[in-house]
Amino acid sequence: MPETFWGRIVMLIEEYSTSFLRGAGVTMIIALVGTFIGCIIGFAVGIVQTIPVSKKDNIVKRVVLKVVRFILTAYVEVFRGTPMMAQAMFIYFGSAAVFNINMSMWFAAFFIVSINTGAYMAETVRGGILSIDPGQTEGAKAIGMNHVQTMLYVIMPQALRNIMPQIGNNLIINIKDTCVLSIIGTVELFYTTKGVAGAKYLYFESFAIAMVMYFILTFTCSRILRFWESRLDGPDNYDLATTDTLAHTSGMYNYSTEKKEEE
């Protein structure tokens, strides 16, 4: 056993580098898939929560939407108001005890992270949709678009750009929070690190390596997401398009000059 801290670090990397990398890979897969599915859930819930309802609508539509919104609101509040570790224990062991459903490690991990992320994304999407100027919706309806077309082609592209930072934040959070899944036996980076530390009784050195790996994963993802955000923002300045006949005419015509020439 090396006597120095760095010597022990090097020893652990040489002996368990494959295990650390495998654990990091599992962490990234769960975080990416869970965030992706969670975004889909969040978009669906957020869109349903913002469907406009008026007294002129059919009573059946109003009652159904009210019931659905109540269920979705309960889902959002419960999963935002409880820790993921408790959710993992409740879902994984509860489903086996009550419903006799034995989840696999991968399915349980994806399911737990996805529904947890979906609850947070639902509020993000709802806020993103409501942040769009109502004039955008009015303009879309004025040219004959229905609600689905308005959301798909007008509102959601703008809302997506506004909520991109929060999507990135959720991914970063999920990379770190996958460690709670070790409680149900998910062999991700934290679980792997505990095994290495217990085998060698080198907890400080093992978790120092794990912290560096977590930082590399989160920092890399945050840089990539910021680059993507900058691409979505587009250029800072826009030139007036003068290729169109109407735009060219309206931009170049000078009434006083034309009047003098006619005289």
From TrEMBL:
The keyword Ligase does not apply. Its main location: membrane. It is found in: Cell membrane. Signal peptide: none annotated. One of its GO terms (biological process) is amino acid transport. Residues 24-225 form the ABC transmembrane type-1 domain. InterPro entries: AA_ABC_transptr_permease_3TM, ArtM/GltK/GlnP/TcyL/YhdX-like, MetI-like, MetI-like_sf. The keyword Lyase does not apply. PROSITE patterns: ABC_TM1 (PS50928). GO terms for cellular component: ATP-binding cassette (ABC) transporter complex. GO terms for molecular function: transmembrane transporter activity. It is a multi-pass membrane protein. Keywords: Amino-acid transport, Cell membrane, Membrane, Transmembrane, Transmembrane helix, Transport. The chain crosses the membrane at residues 20-47, 90-113, 203-225. Belongs to the binding-protein-dependent transport system permease family. HisMQ subfamily. This is Putative lysine transport system permease protein.
